[in-house]
Amino acid sequence: MKTEVYLDIYILVNASMDLLCLLLCARLCHAKTNRLRLVAAAAFGGGYAALCLLLGLSGFWSIATDLIAAALLTTIAFWGRNTSFLRLLRLIFVLFFLSAVLAGLLTLFYQGMNRLDLPLESLSGDGLSVWIFALVGGLSGLLTIRGGRFLGYVGKHREVDLILFFGEKEGRLHALVDSGNLVKDPLSGRGVIVAEKEKILPLLPEEMRRRLSKNDPAAWMGDGKDKIWLIPTQSATGERLLPALLPKKLLLEENGKICDADYLVALSDLGAKKRNFDALVPQE
């Protein structure tokens, strides 16, 4: 039995589904990317699907190449200077999982359409398959557009990169602009960035790093020669103090634009608030 497949429609369907999976993955994992990279990755996915069809891959080799393709898709869409290898592995797993779920849902839809008694007498044989295939393609494209808009709405947030200088050392943090971060220095009123302690400590001199690693505010102050602020904060467990520093220089990068910023940087264990971010920046 021969089945006629329109390669252009096949590529469009798979590319649009890959784009939807990438959008879902980006929102679920708070991964930073841009439209050009997403489109490039989706186009690669569509081309890969067509190649698999032409080569007739199945079984073990099909699964193996799908994993490799998921890794390449993720790398094209999300790889950057601040993307660790472990984070990239997590993104690959999420993308592969989402692809499997959406492919299963579309397969069910395709089979259900074939079983419906639709008034399509004018179409028979391969014509019916082509009609259903085109409908699935249109549905996947619609899901991509609507799903991307919906996720863009519910997951709307600002992400920025921070470039910090403490002495001669430079650090980069991926941060969330958080409207819930209301922490300020009570004396000067200056805003405070709450940063993951383990990301800041390696940038500091050894003696200061040793003191700030402790949970004792008295130890943080040392002899008072290095300027350390004690910032009061409120949490579910009550009030506590955080040690804060004023970087030698602090730059904020967003959408390719870099500007100077004037914040204190408080050291904390972000815990559940972290959500793949290294710091929480106050919303101006």
Short key terms for the protein model shown above:
single chain; 284 residues; alpha+beta; 2 domains; 8 helices; 9 strands
Structure characterization notes:
- It is elongated, with a radius of gyration of 25 Å.
- It has eight helices and nine strands.
- The chain is of the alpha+beta class.
Query: Strand order of the main beta sheet, please?
Result: 4-5-8-3-9-2-1-6-7
Largest sheet: 9 strands, mixed
Work out the helicity level: 40-55%
Structural class: alpha+beta
Mean pLDDT: 77
Q: In angstroms, what is the radius of gyration?
A: 25 Å
* Tally of helical runs: 8
- Give unreliable regions as ranges: 120-129, 148-155
Pattern of helices and strands:
HHHHHEEEHHHEEEEEE
- Give the N-terminus to C-terminus distance in angstroms: 65 Å
Q: Tell me the count of domains.
A: 2
Global shape: elongated
